[in-house]
Design brief:
- The complex is a heterodimer.
- Chain A is mainly beta.
- Helix content of chain A is 9%, strand content 45%.
- Chain A is built from four helices and 31 strands.
- Chain A has helices at 4-7, 56-66, 87-92, 138-154; strands spanning 17-18, 27-33, 39-43, 70-73, 97-105, 111-119, 124-133, 163-170, 173-180, 187-192, 196-201, 207-212, 219-224, 230-234, 240-245, 251-256, 263-268, 275-276, 284-289, 295-300, 307-312, 319-320, 328-333, 339-345, 349-355, 361-363, 371-375, 381-388, 391-398, 403-409, 413-419.
- A six-stranded antiparallel β-sheet of chain A has the order 1-2-30-29-28-27, with no helix packed on it. In chain A, strands 4-3-5-6-7 form a five-stranded mixed β-sheet, covered by helices on one side.
- In chain A, helix 2 (56-66) packs across helix 4.
- Chain A is globular.
- The longest helix of chain B is centred in the C-terminal third of the chain and has 21 residues, at 116-136.
- The relative contact order of chain B is 0.16.
- Chain B folds into two domains: 2-36, no CATH class; 71-174, 60s Ribosomal Protein L30, Chain: A, CATH 3.30.1330.60.
- Chain B has a four-stranded mixed β-sheet.
- Chain B has five helices and four strands; from the N terminus they run ααβαβαβαβ.
- Chain B has helices at residues 2-14, 35-43, 86-97, 116-136, 161-167, and strands at 71-73, 104-109, 144-150, 169-174.
- Chain B is elongated and about 40 Å long.
- Chain B is α+β, with helices and mostly antiparallel strands.
- The chains are: A mainly beta, B alpha+beta.
- The interface between A and B is large, with 82 and 61 residues.
């Protein structure tokens, strides 16, 4: 994943880094866990960032620490992207990489957010970027820097500029919210007196499908997150629920009870051309497309208790996927199609991750009320809802369970998280 | 973003600035933040879709007398209507058969344990069991709809068996 010199550098102690998200965030981010290997990186304050409404380096630092991949070490960084690193001092302080940058006001009112990354071990400039940014968008520009640093160092795309959607309940109101992946920048997309469940992103991140009980029964609605325009796509007799977009965004899988029982149907994203795809006499629900769009994973009680099955979208028999335990629900498939995250009932409700090639299953949570797992678009993290320390929280874990960060929103029930695609 | 990140990578690769070459224009090609995305997102605040909720709206013509019991409770993991609730089902069936324009909704609920979607399906199964009994008693198909709230609308708060038992239920209400 990254050069061997990093892999040899294990961080022995458990971390206790209170990385408070600044400014208007209502979330508090807490990090814990033992990072197996962490890459030491030095990060200076960006020149002139104190004159801007948002500190760039603080956001980048919090991103890198929350990733579990980096350890930010105390070592001198260049004054800005044009400086020269003091390689000897950086090496003596154990930094393998260093980032410097600036945030200068342009004549048109924008802020030119610049950074450069250096490889300290090689003593080499690794490139940089300049991003003229509206002052209100400085957090996003900072997340872009984090994404590029993550990608340059690990070879994989960062998810710092992605968003999550989730539902809160409090004061008798249900609110569908959208936030940055670090829990900042929370936007309430929809507020209702009736429950909202099962949000699902369209692959391009422009729409959210979800289940609303606004009309005293479960209906599936698709909402444009930019314009707020909503359209009902499934409002048949009985319950309409569990929406999931196909990878190409053209098809929606839903659970309908219009024919009696609960079964999985496909429809065009307009709501037209409804056809049933699962056949059982019991419950079939929570369908998810495989990343290649060819298969559906779904929950069925056809064998007794709920288990996860897989079935070709084109038709054909279903194959049972989960065998451990009597109650396995809420499948989420990693973007590379190799991992299945789901919730298993044992002593409690636990997040499990199955390697679909070997069928090995690992428990990756240390909580007992886990719900609604959802993979990050780079496949490295899973977000889920749970209770920790008596509070409702959203938890982000690496897929091996070794590193976790907690998003806490005080005083509210917080549920149904779903990680949005790359794309901002 | 895909296009954007391509630019960024190009920028990363192409920059090998010699120290002292500080001209901003020689650094990188500026990469625009996608303003449309961000600004439009921040204006996407809080318009509830469609009509606002009138949650106090009881049906305009109450078909079910207020004295008629309308809640049927279920055992854990069960969808069978127990004999003790048979009189409730029969009373509602009689009422609907006596008024072919009357309609009722059977609203299924579960306790709080488990996933929201699977519980929605379980509540639907309970509601359909009640509807099926009423159909057997002669109520017309068009007079009944089975729906579910799953675990979203508990009748009582609490996290013990006493609370759960009160929440595993089907409520009959006029439509």
């Amino acid at each position: 994943m990254w050069p061997r010199r990093h892999a040899l550098r294990a961080l022995g102690a458990s971390l206790a880094l209170p990385a408070l998200t600044p400014a208007f965030a209502q979330f508090r981010v807490e990090i814990r866990g033992v990072g197996g290997t962490q890459i030491p990186i030095a990060l200076g304050r960006f020149r002139d960032e104190d004159r801007q409404p948002q500190s760039i380096s603080a956001v980048v630092r919090a991103d890198l620490e929350r990733s579990g991949v980096f350890k930010v070490v105390d070592a001198p960084a260049p004054a800005d992207e044009n400086g020269l690193p003091d390689y000897n001092t950086l090496r003596s302080r154990g930094a393998d990489w260093v980032v410097g940058g600036s945030a200068s006001r342009l004549a048109d009112g924008r802020v030119d957010v610049r950074f450069r990354l250096w490889d300290v071990v090689k003593g080499a400039d690794q490139g940089g970027q300049s991003e003229p940014t509206q002052p209100a968008d400085l957090r996003l520009a900072a997340h872009h820097i984090s994404d590029l640093v993550y990608q340059k160092v690990t070879g994989e795309r960062g998810v710092f500029s992605t968003r999550i959607a989730y539902v809160t309940k409090g004061g008798g109101k249900y609110t569908l919210r959208i936030a940055d992946a670090d829990g900042a920048g929370i936007v309430p997309a929809l507020i209702d007196n009736e429950p909202i469940i099962s949000p699902a992103w369209s692959p391009d991140g422009s729409e959210l499908a979800f289940v609303t009980f606004h009309d005293k029964k479960a209906k599936v609605v698709i909402r444009n997150v930019h314009t707020g325009a909503s359209r009902e796509v499934a409002a048949f007799r009985g319950s309409n629920s569990a929406p999931a977009f196909s990878p190409d965004g053209r098809t929606l899988a839903v659970t309908l009870s219009k024919d009696g029982g609960s079964h999985v149907f496909l429809m065009d994203r307009s709501g037209a051309n409804v056809r049933r795809v699962t056949e059982s006499t019991g419950i079939d629900t929570e369908a998810r497309f495989s990343p290649d769009g060819a298969s559906l994973y779904f929950v069925s009680d056809r064998g007794g208790g709920p288990q996860i099955y897989r079935q070709p979208v084109a038709g054909g028999g279903a194959t049972r996927v989960t065998y451990n335990g009597a109650y396995n629900i809420s499948p989420s498939i990693s973007p590379d199609g190799k991992l299945l995250a789901y919730i298993s009932r044992g002593d409690g409700f636990k997040l499990m991750v199955m390697n679909l090639a070997t069928n090995e299953v690992a428990s990756v949570s240390d909580t007992n009320d886990d719900e609604s797992p959802s993979f990050a678009p780079n496949g490295r993290y899973i977000i889920y809802a749970t209770k920790a320390g008596g509070r409702d929280v959203l938890m982000v874990t690496t897929t091996d369970g070794k590193f976790k960060s907690t998003l806490v929103e005080s005083g509210l029930d917080i549920r149904e998280p779903v990680w949005g695609p790359f794309g901002r | 973003m895909i296009k954007n990140s391509g630019k960024m990578l190009l920028a990363l690769a192409s920059v090998a600035v010699v120290a002292g070459c500080a001209s901003p224009t020689k650094l990188d090609k500026p990469v625009e933040v996608e303003k449309k995305d961000v600004t439009s997102q921040t204006t996407t605040t809080t318009q509830p879709s469609g009509n606002t909720v009138a949650s106090t709206d009881m049906s305009s013509k109450p078909v079910v007398p207020i004295t008629l019991d309308r809640v049927i409770y279920f055992d854990f993991d069960s969808y069978a209507v127990k004999d003790e609730f048979r009189p409730i089902v029969e009373a509602h069936a009689k009422l609907l058969k006596g008024n072919s324009s009357a309609k009722e909704v059977a609203e299924g609920h579960t306790d709080e344990r488990g996933g929201s979607e699977y519980n929605l399906a379980l509540g639907q199964k309970r509601a359909e069991a009640v509807v099926q009994q009423m159909k057997v008693l002669g109520v017309g198909d068009s007079q009944l709809e089975a729906v579910s709230y799953g675990k979203e609308r508990p009748a009582v708060d609490g996290h013990d068996e006493a609370a759960w038992a009160k929440n595993r239920r089907v409520e009959l209400r006029s439509k």
